[in-house]
Design brief:
It is built from 14 helices and 22 strands. With about 450 residues, the chain is of the alpha/beta class. Strand 4 and strand 5 form a beta hairpin. It is globular and about 70 Å long.
Length: about 450
């Protein structure tokens, strides 16, 4: 798009990046009546729409229903196109947002250049996202490896697949490809899968993966990648596969943005430095989403984008909080979490646990892998009255991604833990598991009651 296609060159707010954070910022700005330009070096929608959440969850759902790979691949293209149409350039312009598809670069305070066109603004939001990290393993750069940006373009189902990295993306795709019919080996350097989650959650996922025939190699690293995708592993063993998928993390997209020219600082990870209001080190410039190095989640990025735009354009800034933002790993069972884990809980906190074998809805569905864990702590002044307040929750269950929102709401509103137990839940539902777990803060149920936290629980 040329400069002539944009109505003028001066704006109240310019947003750099068209992913979830950028879309949240641009839409929030226009809602405030601000003249807004969104600059995106790819089609708006970003990683989530084209190479992240949307294609991966479509693949996962297809795998759960035994859909053939060619049909699953077609469904991915169809769903991506359907969602992308709601946030493409024409759709955004219809909402009052000017759009320029190109790479922006700061050329001083208050100015950016996009493919030769110069734009000026009072305020900016940097929301350029992140890209897959590639570890410096000898031979990897010369090998035809896949990342989340390329794996969904595979024309045929790989007969065998090695997944490097046992975090959320690695676990999700390893299980999906195994269910679609690939022989899958999952390699994780840590001593357990999903190392950011509760140890019990890691154990459940590992056990399910073992039953489904995924070859899980924990406490293992790749020493070298040789011809024919032969991976030499620590310990001396060798694994070979048709395809190699690298899912070891993300790196912020800050290259060639001209941040120095604008006075925007970055940290040791390369992420844009921000304060509690998402303001950068440069006056009038804010950052949101993965590029700011905070929670790498689509919904968190969208919320950050909205807050960054509001703070950029408003007079009284709001503080960004992520303590009540949930996240979900979409394996089967799903792993969902909000707030702190038991390892980080204050020593006086109490913990209630409920196995899914005690949940009637799970029994009816023959899906009893998993548990609910609630962590509650003391409130100011009233202490443990009403069960205290919810500090964190982990749920591993078939519908954990839906169940986690009740504890998240409790945290966001500061409600007494007892309200989760006192609220009547429909029977038999998955959500009744949250009620039964919360009730353990007040009574013993089937021999289970809340306990104090365990130190060293990692």
């Amino acid at each position: 798009m040329s400069a002539a296609d944009v109505n003028g060159g001066d704006y109240d707010l310019i947003v750099l990046g068209g992913g979830a954070a950028g879309l949240g910022a641009a839409r929030a700005a226009v809602a405030r009546g601000a003249r807004t330009l969104l600059v995106s070096d790819g089609e708006p929608g970003g990683d989530c729409t084209f190479t992240g959440c949307v294609p991966s969850k479509t693949l996962i759902e297809s795998a759960r229903s035994d859909t053939p790979y060619d049909v699953a691949a077609r469904r991915i293209r169809e769903v991506v196109a359907q969602i992308a149409a709601t946030e493409d350039a024409p759709a955004l312009r219809s909402e009052g947002i000017d759009v320029d598809l190109g790479r922006a670069r700061f050329v001083g305070s208050g100015r950016v250049v996009v493919d030769g066109a110069t734009y000026a603004a009072r305020r900016f939001v940097i929301a350029t996202g992140s890209t897959p990290a590639v570890p410096p393993i000898p031979g990897l750069a010369e090998s035809p490896y896949l990342t989340n940006e390329t794996v969904f373009d595979e024309p045929a189902l790989p007969g065998s697949l090695v997944v490097l990295g046992g975090g959320a993306i690695g676990c999700e795709l390893a299980q999906a490809f195994r269910r679609l019919g690939s022989e899958v080996t999952l390699i994780e350097a840590a001593d357990r899968l999903l190392p950011q989650e509760e140890p019990e959650a890691s154990q459940v996922v590992a056990e399910v993966f073992g039953r489904e025939g995924i070859d899980v190699r924990m406490s293992t690293s790749v020493v070298k990648v040789g011809p024919g995708l032969r991976l030499s592993l620590s310990g001396g063993s060798v694994v070979a596969a048709e395809r190699l998928l690298v899912t070891v993390g993300r790196e912020p997209c800050t290259a060639d943005l001209g941040l120095d020219a604008a006075g925007v600082g970055v940290d040791e990870r390369g992420c844009v430095r921000t304060d509690r209001h998402l303001a950068t080190t440069a006056r009038g410039i804010y950052a949101a989403g993965d590029v700011a190095g905070r929670l790498q989640l689509t919904h968190a990025a969208f919320a950050m984008g909205r807050l960054a735009a509001a703070n950029a354009l408003g007079r009284v800034p709001s503080t960004y909080r992520e303590d009540a933002i949930p996240w979900v790993t979409f394996t089967d069972p799903e792993v969902a979490r909000v707030g702190i884990s038991e390892a980080d809980a204050p020593s006086e906190s109490r913990v209630a646990e409920l196995p899914m074998t005690a949940v009637d809805r799970a029994l009816t569905a023959d899906a009893t892998d998993g548990f609910v864990k609630l962590i509650a702590g003391r409130r100011r002044v009233v202490g443990a009255m009403g069960g205290g307040k919810v500090l964190g929750a982990t749920i591993v269950a078939a519908r954990a991604g839906e169940l986690i929102h009740e504890p998240a709401l409790a945290m966001a509103t500061g409600m007494f833990t007892g309200r989760l137990a006192a609220t009547t839940h429909a029977y038999p539902t998955w959500s009744s598991a949250v009620q039964l777990a919360a009730a353990q803060f007040f009574m013993t149920i089937d021999g289970r009651s809340a306990r104090t936290v365990r130190r060293g629980h990692r």
